[in-house]
Every structure is written in C-alpha cells, then in structure tokens.
Amino acid sequence: MKLLKTKNRKSGGDRVLHAVFHIIMIILALSCVYPFLVIIGTSFATQEAIINSGYKMIPTEASLEAYRSILHNPRQLADAYGVTIFTTVVQTLGGLALTSTYGYVLSRKDYPYRRVLSFYMFFTMLFNGGLVPTYILISKWLGLQNSIWALIIPGMCGAWNIMLMKGFFQSIPSALIESAKIDGAGEFKIFLSIVMPLSKPAFATLGLLMVLTGWNGWYHSLLYITDQNKVQLQYLLMVIMRNIEFLKSAEGQQITNVNVEREVASQAVRMAMCVLATGPILCVFPFFQKYFSKGLTVGSVKG
Fold it and tell me: What is the pTM of this model?
C-alpha cells in the first residue's frame, strides 16, 4: 500500500510538471506566432492607422493599398514566384546530390583521394577569387549572363554543407558497409540502398537549409539578370520597395507630382512583402519538422 501511494504521488507530480512544461511551451509558441500575426494585420493597415496606433494585429483602419502597390503588375510577380520556385527546387535537389556524394567519399577512410578532396574543400572555405573574377567566370566564360542557371549553379554546392554531410555519414557504422561489400554490393548500391535511407534526417535538415537559402536569394539576380521576367521574388520585392521609397522622396514627388506618402503606406508595404515572401515557405517546414531536430544532432559527436 505504501509503495502504491508513493507511485501515485510520483505520477501526480509528473502530471503537474508536464502541465507546467506544456504551459511554458504554449507561451513560447504564442510569442513566436504573435509577431507574424502583427505583420499580417499591419499589412492591411492604412498609413494614418500605423502612425496613430502603431503596429497591431487587428488594424483600426483596414486598407488593401499595400497589396495593390505590390500587385500592380501581377504577371511580373507570378513570373518571380515561378523563377524562385524553379531555382529553389533545382538548386536544392542538385545541391543535395553533389553535397551528399562529396561528403560520402570524404567519410570513407578507404577512399584514395580523400586527402586531396578535403584540401580542395577547405581551401575554398579560406580563399576565393572575389566578386570580379566570379562575375567574369559566370557571365563571360560560362556564358550564363541573363540565364536562369546563373541563379542556380553558384549556390548549388558549399564547403560547409559538405562538412555537415561528412559528419552525418561518419555516424553510420562501418560494419554495415563492410557487410554489404561481402554480399557483393557495389559503391553506388551501398550509397543508394544503405547510406541514403539511414541519412534521411541529414538530407531533410540540409535540404531545408538549402530551400531557405534559395528562397531568400536575391544577390545573383542583381549581378547576372537584366531581364525583369527572370528575377527572383526577393529581388523583385526589393525593387518595388525602392521604387516606393524614391516616389516618397522630394525628387520623386517633383517628377511624378504625386503625394505617395498619403496614397501608399510604406510600412504596410514592408509587412505585405514579408507576408508574400514568407507565406509559401511556411508551408514547406512541416514536411521537414520530424527530421529537423534529429538531423541537427546526428553526427555531432564524430567529426
């Protein structure tokens, strides 16, 4: 009877502790969601409402002027979405293929060119040609000026991502690979049938990071793209915001004779840009969530 009472007391204490942890996590989750809800609410606010009431989740005066300013050319925005989605998907899939194969051969101690490839990888982390040689390489030698592949190839493979994949692959027991060799499996068979299924958390984690990098990319559009129908979404939104800021300036108002300060809420436009830029990518994260926390820790002990 005493043991039973002790167990009941422990289970009751555990329930209280779990309830406290759940309350804390709910508060933290709401504190993360609330700023995004404020961004959505402010994107529908007027300039006067933002000046008088500040940023609010429910605006005192609602308006669609911010979205009208961004969507004045819907076809251009749709093209930017299409370019961003295509470049993100291709860059992520190609980057995972290159990064995983490079990291796998570096994790194999029996690979004869392991030291040479490791030196080549670390050298690119310490030194690079700089902006001008990179621009000449992409635009002149490779002929990718104003090409959509100029948005994909430069960011497809990175030394840091290779190091992460190498650490993930080193956590796989070498006995599995040796047993597969004894059974007659080749290197590609081992990589596709054994290594990749065991490395799903690694692929999901690195894939999510590549998706975020590709989705938020704009610098390559600035350097290599002059056709406005081939620019990425982030670059297009940045150009729209700069145009609005110019029209609000004294020089812009003298040229256009339009009081943009009254007609367009620049802060609401910024918030609307955040909604348009981050909304689609939020739908991708749940598919990676179950692998993400595990992928961040796998391979962290072995280097």
Answer: 0.80
